[in-house]
């Protein structure tokens, strides 16, 4: 599968930054493959680093909007019917639903850092009719550091760009734990302040 996806990405290379945006707009194309390759293009001098990061972040924001729309306007039945075309299975939906119910709209940001959740979390956000502008901002802010990391590592590794995921993978879960811990603390503090305000009144 990786081979045909790689060829698919290369098809967009001639379109430069617009091609990078388009490639990442297809949710079935793994960003973990596209972004390091973009870093390699920076290494070759075909792109500028900051423009590649900007294009990658914009494309990484457009892609989730397709699944957001699928969840918002089609609901779970349509997602279960057509989700396979985005490599989404029912157990992915169950996990993302649970995650959304537990953490609320903030998952549009924090969910991007959690393996197995980052792609499908857009669906429950859509099903809950989360404000699309808020969803887009959260997604953009989450994709910015992720995009920067993968493209920069692809740039630094040069012709060895295919090994980027091997370098990043051991740190993904610990990073996700830190992000979730911070978000959980934020939720608890917010609830505590709300209860304190109610008690005063």
Radius of gyration: 18 Å
Order of helices and strands: HHHHHHHHH
| Unreliable sequence segments | none
Q: Which sheet architecture does the biggest sheet show?
A: none
Strand content: under 5%
Which class of secondary structure composition applies to the elements? mainly alpha
How many beta-strand segments?
0
CA(first)-CA(last) distance: 60 Å
Residues in helices, as a percent range: over 70%
Q: Judging from the principal axes of the Cα atoms, what is the shape?
A: globular
The number of helices is 9
Total individual domains = 1
What do the pLDDT scores average to?
Answer: 79
Structure in words:
- The chain is mainly α.
- It has one domain (about 1-170).
- Helix content is about 75%, strand content about 0%.
- The protein is built from nine helices and no strands.
- The protein has helices spanning about 1-10, 15-25, 30-45, 50-80, 90-105, 105-110, 120-125, 130-155, 165-200.
- Helix 2 (about 15-25) runs parallel beside helix 4, helix 3 (about 30-45) packs antiparallel against helix 4 and helix 4 (about 50-80) crosses helix 8.
- The protein is globular and about 65 Å long.
